[in-house]
Structures are given as C-alpha cells and as structure tokens.
Amino acid sequence: MKHIMGMYSWLSIATSGIRFGPDREAVRCELMEHMEDKAADLMRIFPDIPEEEAQERALAGMGDAWELKKELAKVHKPWLGWLWRCTQVLVWGLLALCLITVLGSAGGLLENQKYRWEDAQQSRAVGQALYEDGTPDWEGERLAVLQVDGEARLGGATISVSKGARWREPEGNRLFLRLRITWDRPWEVNDIAINYLWAEDDLGNTYEINASRAMAEGWNWCQRDLSLKDVPLEAKELRIHHVLRDELDLAVDLTREVVP
Amino acid sequence: MRTPDFVKKGWGRVKSWWDRLPKLPRRWRIVRNLAAAAVLAVLVLTLLEWPALSSYASFRRLEGAYLLTPSRLVFQVGDGWSAGYLSEGDSWITVGSVSKFKSSGKPLNLDRNYALLHYILPKEGIVAVLLPAKNEDGGAVAAVWGAPEEAVSGTMELDLKGIKNPFPGTFTIQRRETFSAQAQRREDGWFIFQFVPHDDHGEHTSCAMEMLLWSGPAFRWAEMEQPYRLTLTDGQGNTVAEQSATLPPAQRLPQW
Fold this sequence. Notes:
The structure holds 2 protein chains of 2 kinds.
Chain A: H1 2-15, H2 21-45, H3 51-60, H4 65-75, H5 78-104, H6 106-131, E1 141-146, E2 150-154, E3 157-169, E4 172-183, E5 197-201, E6 206-208, E7 212-217, E8 221-229, E9 237-242, E10 250-253, E11 257-259
Antiparallel strand pairs in A: 1-3, 1-11, 2-3, 3-4, 4-8, 5-6, 5-9, 7-8, 9-10
Chain B: H1 5-20, H2 26-47, H3 55-65, E1 72-78, E2 82-88, E3 92-100, E4 113-122, E5 127-131, E6 141-145, E7 153-160, E8 177-184, E9 191-194, H4 208-214, E10 227-233, E11 239-246, E12 253-254
Antiparallel strand pairs in B: 1-2, 2-3, 3-4, 4-12, 5-6, 6-9, 7-8, 7-10, 10-11
C-alpha cells in the first residue's frame, strides 16, 4: 500500500508543473506505464523479487520528482494547449449555431433554396436555347450567336457580359445578352440593381434594361438574360451605362458572329 | 433513457474511424480547427443572411446593393428606433432610412433593421431633399446641395398640405401649414435646415409636420412632393439664388 501511495505522490509531484490539464494527465499516464514496465522488467530479470519491491525499485529509478517537475514545466508550455482547446470550442460552437439556424428557419431556408434551384434550372435551359443548341419553349428563330465578353467595375461590384444572341420573334427582333453582377461583398447581392442600367448602341438608340428571359442568383452574384427589343442589325456596338453614375461604360461588340 | 443500439454502434464506428486517422501535431490541429472555424463562420453568416449589426451598416449595405459606393456620409438624424441618412457620391445623392422592428423576419431575428432608400438623385442644379427621420425637436430635416459658391446662408420655407393623419378614424389635414428654417453653409457645401413643428395648435388639431413624421419612414413618407421656397444669400445679405419647387417624390427602394 505504501509503495502505491509513494508512486501516486511521485507522479503528482512530477507532473504538477504542467499547467494544461489534458497534457498533465497524458504525461502522468505515460510515466505510470513507464514505471510499470520497469517493475515488470525487474520481475522478469529477478523472478524471486516480490512485486512490491520491484515497484519500489522502479520508483527509485525514476529519479527526483521535484527535478523532473521543473524539466516538464519547461517543456510543456500551456498556451498551445489552451489555444487548441479554444479552437475546439469555437468549431463546436459554430457547428451548434449552424444547427440552431437551420432548425430555426428550416422552412424558409429550404424554400429559398428550392426557388434558387428552380431559377438556376430555368436559366440553364433558357441559356442553352438562346446561345447553344437547346430547344426554346417560345416562338422564334435564332439569327446569330454572338461572341461577346466585356467586364467593368462599378461600386463594389463587377459587371460582365458573357453571351449574346440575336433572335427574330413574332413581336420583333431581339438581342439577348447574359449580364452578371458580381459583388465583392456577398451581403450586397441585389437583383434590382440591374434595373438601374441602360444601354445605347452606336447608332444612337437607347434601351431600357428592364426585361429578361431568365434570371439566376448565386452566393455573391445575380444574372439575367436581358432581352433588348428592336436593336438594329446594323448596330455594331452596345454600351451599357448606369442611370446615375457616369463611370460605367461597358462596351459590347455585336460584330463577332460565331454561329450565323 | 437508454441509448438505442444502432446509435451506439454507429458512434462506435465513427470513433474507431476517427482513432484510425493519423494524429496531427498540436500546432497543425490548431491550424486545422481555425480553417474549419473560418469555413463554418461563413456558412453560419450565410445561413443568417449576413446580419447587419447597426442601422448605419444596414444603410451602407443597401447603398452597396444598388451600386452606390464609394460614398460619403453627409448627415444623419435619428430618434432611436428610426434613423435617416444622407450620403453623397461623385455624381449622386442618396437619402435612406433604417427602422428597427421587433421582428424583421430574418433568421434568429438577429438583424431587426429594415433599410429603405428614399431618394437617389443626380447632382444637377440645386437639389433639396427631406431626411426621413425626426430631429431632436421632433421636426423634419431638409438638406440642400448645389448652392452657388457665394451663398453662405439660406432660408427654406416648406409647405405641408394633404398630410394623412396616421390615427384610425381621423382625416387628412387639408389646411396648408408653412414651416420655416435657416441654415449656414457647411464646409462641405451642404445646407442642413432643421425644422421645428408648430406648437400653437388647438386641443383637437394636429401639426402637419408631426403627422408626417409620426409613423416612421418605412410606412409613410409617400407624401413627400410638397412645395418649398429656398432663398440663398451671400455674406452681405444679398440674395444669390432663389428656388421655388416641389420636393422630389420618394422612390422607396427596398432591401432585396
């Protein structure tokens, strides 16, 4: 009994310099295993030795507990352990907050995602019909697919045009352009901002940008397939401007037909 | 309550899988946890629809949403539950309001602000706008931009007529009331006119200005097309500009 008390007392003293609890416990276990291994070795080498004596000798061979305490305290800095614990708490806390938010707004969140998904699907189908080989679900004939690419900065956003096509429809000729606004800050995404743009061709005609065939929205962007009515076939260039800001002058080349 | 066996088994499998994974040194565990926390923080904020933590942040956000940045805050006025903001960019003027509601319909109700842009006006000529919130006296605040450089002070007379009384069972205030305020030119060229409501009304009549401002900018402020007269004078008291016009109609651009 006395040697067990001695062992525990030795372990407590030796590890008391380690200030981070989990490390203290791990080192304590390691030292105890080491001590038990040592005692087992002694018993294997000297089979006649009683277990108590083997353990006492093993303990004596471990050295001075107070010296070891100092050494261990030097090696085991607590701040790294505490920092690790803090990051663990942070991760679990955020996971819990995620769960609470999802549960708290389950219906709305799913419904929003459903609408977004439907819009994205529609936008994909309309995009394929407008600019690629998809089948349109409206009456009209594609006259040309245009290779357009333009990008400009305005405020904290980038405005870009990536696709274009000319169509003849029963109501007249239409020019379709895929326009996207990508905000630097995802919390500013706003589909209505597109309504503040207008366009002007090189013949001097102006167009309101308020009609689109499809729309989609992502994490920090929104996109519309704009429908501009009666843009003359002779128009070679379109320039997109902002109603209130002179800085925006996004040129769209209408001459590069890739599919006649 | 006893844990079902399949939960115990499942948890056991997860734990043994976790134990089999190579263990990283502590420094790398910290790095891994911080990376995971960053990803989770973005996820949480997205789920929470990026809550704005102040009224002004809500207004700034709406400016950004309508591509009206960078801008400079010119003036703000508020009475605790609603605030009015006036900002300017290179070529435009923005007037907005942010009202606090008990419930905004946003996740966990963290962000209770409701922002609205009342005017986005080009900087052309002399522009006069009314800010959508009460000042300390319970009156309206008007701001004027574009005054001639020699103008150092000004007087503004505002007529309010046909203001609806917000209380149920009451009538529109048909009589015309005129309010007057003086202002000095600020360093940035703006004139800010602070109006005071009339206090000489009888027991059963209400001041049109108080009625206009009563319900807050999110509900009212649709009756903004009110006539005003502006007189700007130079340092000697000579009139350098006069303008009789109507305040612009509120555009009321909402949050998405």
